[in-house]
Amino acid sequence: MYGADLIKYYSDHGYFYGPDGVLHSHVNFSDEEARAIVTETHRLGKKVAAHAIGDDGIAAALRAGVDSVEHGDGLTGPQMEEMAKRGIYWVPTIVVGAYVANGRQGNWPKMVETEKAAFWLALTKGVKIVLGTDAGGFDWRDLNEAKEFEYYVNYEMTPMQASARLPLPPRSCWAGRTKWEPWRRESGRISWRFRAIR
Question: The domain containing residue 70 runs over which residues?
Fold first, then answer.
């Protein structure tokens, strides 16, 4: 009844392109530590999301057994195949990366293009993609979160496919019309004992 609905942990930081052309990152936790986060959270019946942008952080999150990869700019084909096979969700949050890229410079503009290529490949590999915006990563007055849909369509989803990713009710980062919503039965309407979720 009380406490967190899910746990999101930061799998990586410090994103860079290696000589192999792959978007890499520095991993924040040992495999043992990450597995402990996931195992304990699952023991309590909750889901685990991992902030993972680079190949290394994504690989570490998948080894740990997460339920969702958030951002995932550097997803590779083999990682996508593993995600599709295991039913792991991807929440691309394209809008925030595209919004901050020019201000941050460095690798960020290239990361937007890397994620665009990953998005198309994920569609072909059957990865479960759900809409998220990483709200809070940008000023809400400057950018409408619905721009995420526009990116999905520009990145080869049909408008109908994109709208099927719409969470009910909207969430900020992890969401979708899927089993990934652990509280789905308790939200989505105004009624006694239902949750108000933004």
Answer: 6-186
